[in-house]
Amino acid sequence: MPQEFKLILKHADEPGYTPDMGCYLKHGGYETLKKALQAPGRDLPDGKKLSPQEALREDVKASGLRGRGGAGFSAGLKWSFVDRRSGKPIYLICNADESEPGTFKDRQILHKDPHQLIEGMVLSCWANDVKLAYIYIRGEFPEGARLLNRALAEARAKGFLGKNILGTGYDLDIWVHRGAGAYICGEETGLIESLEGKRAYPRIKPPYFPAILGLYLCPTIVNNVETLCHVKHIAAMGPAEFARLGTPNNTGTRIVSLSGDVQRPGYFEVEVGKVTIGELIFHENFGRGLRPGRQLKAVIPGGSSSKVLKAGEVFQLKRKGADGQMAPVEVPMLDLPYDFDSLQSAGTMSGSGAVIVMDDSRSMVDALANLSEFYAHESCGQCTPCREGALWMAKGLHRLTHGDGRKEDAAYLAHIAQNIQGRTICAFGEAAAWPVLSFVKKFREEFEARGEADVAARAAAGSVPDSNRKPSPHA
Amino acid sequence: MSAPATAAPATSPPPLPAAETVTLKVNGRTVQVPKTMPDWQGKPQPTTMLQAARLGGVEIPHYCYHDKLPVAGNCRMCLVEFGTPALDPATRKPALNADGTPKIARSVLPYEPGTPRGAIACATPISPGMEIYADSPATKQMREAVLESLLINHPLDCPICDQAGECKLQEYSVEHGQSASGFFETKVHKPKAVDLGPRIMLDDERCILCTRCIRFSKDIAGDDALGIVNRGSYNSIAAFPGRQFDNNYSLNTVDLCPVGALTSKDFRFKMRVWFLKETRSLCTSCGTGCNIVIGSREETLYRLEPRENEAVNSSWMCDSGRLNYKWIGRADRLREVRVRGGHSTWSAALPQIQAILAKAPQGSVAILAGARQTTEELYLLKKLADRFGAVTDSVPRTGAADGFLVAADRNCNTQGARLTGIWSGTMGAQIPRIAEGIRAGGVRTLVVFGEDVTRHGIGPELLASLETLVVSDLLPSATTRAAHYLLPGCAAAEKRGTFVNVKGRLQKFLKAVEAPGDARPEMEFLWDLLEGDVARRAPANIEAIFNQMVREVPAFAGLEWARVGDTGVTVPL
Ligand SMILES: Cc1cc2nc3c(=O)[nH]c(=O)nc-3n(C[C@H](O)[C@H](O)[C@H](O)COP(=O)(O)O)c2cc1C
Ligand code: SF4
Ligand code: SF4
Ligand code: SF4
Ligand code: FES
């Protein structure tokens, strides 16, 4: 039976669990840190010796942990890119900007169990020789910032943070930095610029790969809140045990934010790939199905930036057969396991782990207009295709949803989006283009019908013939 | 003129034979380029696709990139399709085609392998075996799409835009634009005629947000004055609250701005740029000698713009120098030869001066030669002085150096005056002695070029006691009013010649406009004075005079007029 597996959220929602040091310690908090800092290092079969820090880095790699912020990139690999020879300080930043529409998982940790994040961060920093780290928290989380600051003060007082941590001679401090309310501050290089006190204009890569030229042009690691919490669990249970959770190449647990037209929206921590999209929506342990009398229409599987899935879609996925060979199998959309690789094979992504469910009462045109407005509002405006294209799409959709549409608007919107993806400084370009490309492709009739209806209504009202028409002004 | 550096690809030559090179293909042609090339600060950095393509003779369109500014990579105009040598997945060795040539993997979107992926040529380093497809259909499509995006919200007010005719948006639209607009929405409107500072007006609607102006002000002029406000398509350039964009280099942003967003208050709406004649010249406002282009129409100057010279001013000039040209057209410019207060002519006045000088006893003549005269004029003045054993000197003119371009020396040819022997030791030290000589009666004839000596210790009463006062100048002063012989000269824009800057850079300038009235280049009438019989003289010839000077002035040994290029030569000081 598909069910939750609470690793990160093990205690957070228990009655009486509080975000303070005393409660965390009572639940075994900081024990992992104490053990790790005393670990002797590791002898390798080839006679080489790993320092305890190197050993933890290896463990994170071996655990298969993939980033929970959006791209699902291997955390261990990311750490291995850090330039350790530059002689410059190495920084670590916890990305707590959680702004992807539909996503509400990091805030559970920040508000209910900040010490778990801090323990994960201290371990990650220690493993990477980081002496100074930041938590970049979304501006709209004032309470989260307050709780984090209190928790950091408690950790400093207990010697888990600050000078000479637990008597080991290791120094680390962590500071909270509050964002000022922009989605783009979650993009790691935009975040770095913002942390440096500048406008959150994402940086060009090359040359500004954070692992080499990050914060203050020093090597920098940026990881999501949930990713950093997992480091604690990898240290506690060992990489092999961690990797037993989830499925191969999609290890561990992740917190899914389920929203939209389900009976029971909410966040659910599950083993990666052990639960399907259908189960998330319909199973008693998760969404408990749609409202009475409704049919499923679409699912946005990984935050608003991911490509939409249409009810009834069937995908060709490669699966290992009984003979151990990879063979193509047909997988209906609802049977897609909720993991990184399956969703990628289905042409979309699990992104930030936010599943948005739409039933047949929803207009895809209106939904896309809403999403596009968000992207037009949040484009930082640095690079041409995204700056101009994001607003262009939003204006077209505004027109289409306000009685001024045309049949050709479907193709028109796809044309704009196609000219954004892959041509921008940061992945916001894809984030803005993908909803449009996928909605228009998969629900084309609905878009065209909306445009045709507008044309017919205008003709009936005897307004100017379409060929002579100028668009009406709107915001 | 927009972006002098980008307009002239030939100006970034490859550095001296680099130890390492990379071989790659640009539009199918094999080229070998240095592995590293100078970045905006001159530091070696991995050669970019844009630089490599240039060396291969292909200019990749770009807006935000500028040789002299940090790379921003924001306009995306330089996106190009490219390929890299494919690796055999099994052996990890380079894969080969049937004919033995390396197999090239074209860049594609990782999530949509059928769609080409572009890289920004301005910031992407090259690699061995890379192929740059600067003209492929995919590259052209990307370029057209970027241009379309830049144009959808652009006001297209070219008919009243000062940039029209030298606008990169216009130029690239001709090359990569579409004839019909696919835009069916209303445009974003932004502020127009924003007063950014004392010399700059901003039209936010025309701005393509390339941030060249921001980067110049912050990273070159050292004044973090400009930024972007608002978000997305509403982004606008602005000076920080409470700040004026008023540094002494602000007008360089008008040159850098690829479109008509930043305009010079001085030049705005004065002249359509395509009517302007462009003349290579030098700024005369300080000893740096920034290389400039004079924009003139008929006999009127309309603007000065910097001209690239790595040895002197890079691509910049200061605002004070740039705007210091209006006096050239002043109504009170000296325009006639005058002898003892009455109108005269060159053919009448010069023989009289010759006759007076011929009779002058040794040591009775003194010459004050402005250190803003050309090297050739100073050389001829020195020759004249030597004939009569005359004392010579110049007037020092100083101010504060700004640590960037503006030099403390505000004369443009102090070193030319020293190298030709007009002054030595301490400039101006002879002036009190000349004054004393006049007072004592030993100095009877004074020749003054380009200075109002009454402001430098030789007052009107001393001038009145002279037997002969010969003055050449451009504008009236107490000295010109006291002159017995008044010879109207020319501004640098009205003649040819050379100046030697504070670092010993000898540079040429050319004539942009005619001088007013009877005014003549000083070199010409000095030559006449020296040559004797005006009627039989060989006409003054800049090339001959320069080459003769070279033979006589040791610092100039080996030079030749024809070989002093557009950016000058360095001479030992
Ligand atoms: C437009 C945009 C917004 C993003 N917002 C967030 C965010 O709010 N939180 C986050 O953790 N990652 C966000 N990311 C992803 C980060 O850039 C980065 O990949 C991530 O923080 C890395 O952490 P991880 O490897 O642990 O996932 C965003 C990316 C983009 C392109
Ligand atoms: S893609 Fe959009 S958000 Fe990212 S840098 Fe460009 S304009 Fe900004
Ligand atoms: S900036 Fe260029 S395209 Fe725009 S109005 Fe001026 S000349 Fe025309
Ligand atoms: S004002 Fe000109 S230079 Fe500045 S960002 Fe706009 S287009 Fe670029
Ligand atoms: S020139 Fe603007 S992105 Fe390369």
Note the main attributes of this structure.
heterodimer, A: 475 residues, alpha/beta, Rossmann fold, Ubiquitin-like (UB roll), de novo design (two linked rop proteins), five-stranded mixed sheet, 39% helix, B: 573 residues, alpha+beta, Alpha-Beta Plaits, 3 domains, seven-stranded mixed sheet, six-stranded mixed sheet, 15 helices, 28 strands, 20% strand, disordered N terminus, binds flavin mononucleotide, binds FE2/S2 (inorganic) cluster
In total, how many beta strands of chain B? 28
Helix content of chain A: 25-40%
Q: Which geometry of chain B do the CA atoms define?
A: elongated
The count of β-strands of chain A is 16
* Major sheet of chain B: 7 strands, mixed
Task: Indicate the CATH architecture of the largest domain in chain B.
Answer: 3-Layer(aba) Sandwich
Count of the separate structural domains of chain A: 3
Hey, roughly how much beta strand do the residues of chain A contain? 15-25%
Mean pLDDT of chain A: 96
Which two chains touch over the largest interface? Answer: A-B, 39 and 42 residues
Could you describe the largest sheet of chain A, including whether it forms a barrel? 5 strands, mixed
